[in-house]
Amino acid sequence: QVQLVESGGGLVQAGGSLRLSCSASRLPLSNYTIGWFRQAPGQEREFVAVISWIGAYTYYGDSVKGRFTISRDNGKNTVYLQMNSLKPEDTAVYYCAAVFGTFLTRQAMGAPGTYRYWGQGTQVAVSS
Fold first, then answer.
1. For the residues 52-56, what does the mean pLDDT come to?
2. Is the four-CA dihedral 57, 79, 43, 115 of positive or negative sign?
3. b/e map of 57-85 (b: 16 or more CB within 10 Å)?
């Protein structure tokens, strides 16, 4: 059974940093486009960042651009989300998601429905 696992969430003060990890069993992430999404209570799931399966193309949501960085380590079968200059409005459950390698438009990369596999999420809380 394919399983994505997020880790690295926690409580941090505004201005601080966290690094989230997304790892997988039975899924070579190097063959997958990996997205990060987040969902705050009462809100829709929001696109955060994506890294493509080939060429390591990256794309970010407007609210995190310049503060967050997505990267992958294929040797460790892990994708990371480095989050700097965190703000209280970044508080949410963060999910990683995977879709098998194919050429996607930017719009498709940012859509939750594009992704086949999802993790259970990791909570990030930023205090003011």
1. 82
2. positive
3. eebbbeebeeebbbebeeeeebbbbebee
Which phi and psi (to 5°) does residue 33 adopt?
-80, 130
70 vs 35: CA distance, rounded Å: 9
CA 85 to chain centre: 17
Angstrom distance (rounded) from CA 102 to CA 104? 6
CB 117 within 8 A of CB 4: yes
Token couple for 11: 């409580």
Q: Quote the CA–CA distance of 103 and 82 in Å, as a whole number.
A: 25
Round to whole Å and give the CA distance between 127 and 40.
14
| pLDDT value, residue 69 | 98
Q: What is the pLDDT of residues 1-43, one digit of tens each?
A: 778 999 999 999 999 999 999 999 888 999 999 999 999 999 9
| pLDDT tens per residue, range 63-105 | 999 999 999 999 999 999 999 999 999 999 999 999 998 889 9
